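Run log, item B.
One chain of 813 residues. Sequence copied directly from the ordering sheet:
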Amino acid sequence: MSRVAVGARGRVGSDGERAAHGVGAAAHGRVPATVPATPGQVGQVGLIGLIGLIGLIGLIRLIRLPRQPWQPWQPWQPWRRQAAAVLALLAMPGAWTAAAQPLPVAPVRDVPEVFFGTTVHDPYRALENTRSPAVVAWMRAHGERARRTLQALPARAALRAALDHYDAGPPARVASVVRRPLSGGAVERLFYLKRGAGEPQFRLMRRDGFDGAEQLVFDPARLDGRGRAQTHAINFFEPSPDGRRVALGVSAGGSEAASLWVIDVEQGRRLGMPVSRADQAAPAWSADGTELWFNRLQPPRRGAPPAERYLHSQLVALRPGVDAAPRLVLRAGPSAAERAAGMPAIDARESPVLAVQADGTVLLLAIDGVASEFAAWWSTLDALRAGRPAWRPLVTREDGVTALALQAGRVFALSHRGAPRYRLLEGPLEGFAAGTAAVRVAEGERVLVQIAAAADALYIEAREGNVKRLLRLAYEGGAPVEVALPVAGAFAFEAGHADARLPGVLLDLQGWTMARRIYAVDAQGRARDTGLQPAGPFDAPAGLATTEVMVPSHDGARVPLSVVHRADVVLDGTNPVLLAGYAAYGYTEEPGFSASRLAWLDAGGVYAVANPRGSGVFGRAWHLAGKEATKPNSWRDLIACAEWLVAQRWTRPARLAIEGGSAGGLLVGMAMTERPDLFAAVLIDVGALDMVRGELEPSGPPNIPEFGTRTNEAGFRALLAMSAYHQVRDGVPYPAVLLTHGVNDPRVAVSNSTKMAARLMAASTSGRPVLLRLDWAGGHGIGDTQAQVLDQRADEFAFLMWQLGMTPRAAPR
C-alpha cells in the first residue's frame, strides 16, 4: 500500500535492495516507491517532484548473487520432472516432518457485517488481534513450520550461496545521490547512501566533488543492540542547501517509526535530541541551513483506532541545536478557528509538507499519500517566520498537477487535466492558474513523467513504451531537445538529482540485462559515468535476452509484457516461468536489473513482468482503467498475460508461478482466486488481501482514493470485488502459496497474510502447501538488512523450484 513520501531520500531501486526509502521507490504505504509507498517527491531549491508510487518497494526485489562455489547439476529431462518432484519431497525429511507435525488450527469465529444489503463474512477476524497470546502462538507455530520447511528444501542452500555470490559482485551499492553547491559553486558536495558487499545496511556518506575523498556521515548500525536487539536503518535524509547539515530519519526493526536526527556534517556530531513521530517527515531547510520544517504525526491517543495513526499530521518547525522541541506551524484538518486564522483547507488524511526555494519563496503542499496529484499554496520565508504567511493558492487537486518546479519567478507544472499523457504548463508565479497557463510542451505519444529544475535548463523525464527518454528544455524558449543516453532503459528523477543552483542532472540508468550506473548530464547534454556506483563482474551478463510483447486482454486492450530469459530458451511449453506485476497507483514496472534474477535464470527459469491497467505505462487513462470499480481489469490483464505465455509455449500451468507484493499482492491474489487452474504456485509478499477491512488499518484512509471506501455502496462493491480473502471458496484446488510478511509492517497489516493463510488452509483441496513465512524483525521491507532480503529471496526461489518441479541446471556465471 502507499503512503506519502515527499522529499525524503533513501534507498532506491538499487539491486538487492528490498524497498526504496523515500523518493522514487515503489514501496507501498504512506510515504515516500518500493514504495506500494506513495510516491511523491518534493525537491527543494527549485525542484518539486511528486511521483506516484511508493512503492515497488515491495514488489520485484532487486537482489544480487553468488559468492560461494556453485555445484553444477545435470540438465533436467522433461520425462523425469514428475518423478523428481516426488523424490524431492521424500528427500527432505526435515521439511516433511515439519509439515506433518500437528499445528494449531485457527478457529472459525465468523464476524458477519452487512453493507448495503450484502452480508460479508469474516471467519478469521480474531487473527487481527496480534496482541492475543493465542494469536501470537498460532503465528509463531505456522511461521516456524514455514521456516523449517523452506530451510530443508534441497535447492535452498545452493540458491542462498548463489544470491551471496551475485550480491558480492560490485564492491558496494550506492543509492540516492544528492547534490549541493559549496561556496562559490566551483565544487559540489555529494551525499549518498552506500552499502559495502556483505554489509547489512546502508550508511550515509559524503564527498566534495565526484573525485573527492569519501567520508562517513552516519552509520545506523551504531544504534543496533540498544534496548531491544533490533537493527536500524536510514529511512530518509535531506542535506541543508549549503551541505553543512543533514536531517535524517532512523527507524528500527522495519517499523518505519522514524525519529528525525540532525547531524552537523563538518563537526560530525548530532544537534539536539532526535524528534519522534517523523515517519514521513519530508524535511525542508531554510536557505541558510538554520531552520528546518518537517511533517510530524499527531501524538498517539489512548485507545484510538489504528486508522487514526496518519490523520491530522502536523507541519512543524525546528531550529536545530537551539529549540528544545519543534513548534507547530499548521495541521491537517484545521479547526474552524484555525481556518478563520488563515490555515489552508488541508484534509485530515493529507500530509502538509514544505518546500523552500533559494529565492525565499515557500511552497506548502498537501499530499494524500496515494494520489500523485496535490494541492499547493505559496508564500515567502519572511512571512512564514513572522507568523503571517497568508498562503496564496497555486494549484488545486482538480488541476491534475503531479510535479512542480520554480525557476526565476516562473512556474513549470506537469498536468494530466485534459491530457492523459500529460503536458507541461508554464507561467509567472504571481497569479499562476493551471487553467489559463501557457502550454510549453503539448501532450504527445510519449508520457511525460517528471521534471527537474537545474541552473541551465528544465529536464523532463518521458516514457516511450518501456524506455525512458531525457528531454532538455531551455528556460528562454524553444522546443525540448532529446539528450542521447548511453543506455536504452529506465531512470527516475529523484529530488536530489538536480539543484536549481547547479547545471545538469544526475541519472540512474539501467535495463533488464544491464546493471544500474550513475551518470551526470552536463549543460551541453553530454552524459558521463560518474563512477559513484562501482562496476561489478555481473553488470552485463552474456547469454540473456528480453522479449517485449503486447498481449490482448479480455476486452481487447493490449497489455505490455516483458520476458527476460536465456538467449537459448526453447519454446516447448516446459520452461518454469515466474510472472510478476503490481498495477496500482499509476506505478509502472520499468526495465530494471536484478542480480537475484540471475540465480533464477541460471536455474532454468524465465522471468516475466506485466504492466496491467492500474499502472501508468500509458499515462493517466491506463491508471484510471485499473482502480476502484475498474480494478478487475488489473488481474484480468495479468491472467491474459499468463494465458499468452501458455499459448505461446513459453510454459504450461504446471510450470507457471506469479508473484506480487503489497498492492501487487492484491493483483496476484485475485488472479489466483479467479483462475486457480492457471498457476502452480503463488508468491505474495506483504500483500493487501482483505480490502474490505483495509480502510481500518493505519494506512487505510490515505489509500481510499486508489481503492475506494466502504462507506458508500459503489466503493464497497469495488472493495469486495478486489478482496482476495473474500473470494476464496471451499473445495477448490488452489495452487501452492507462500505468504511472506514482516510482523512490524506499518503499511499493510500482517493480518492480511495470516487471515488469507488460514482461509486457504481450510478451503483448498489441492494438497499443495500454504506456507506463512513471518519475519518478527521486519516490516514492509523498508529497513530490512541485506541478509533478510537474501534469505527471503532464497526461500521464495526454493519454494518455486519445489512446486514447479525444477532442478538447477547450470552453474552461475
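Observations after the first pass:
- The longest strand covers residues 172-181.
- The mean pLDDT is 87.
Flagged for discussion on Thursday.
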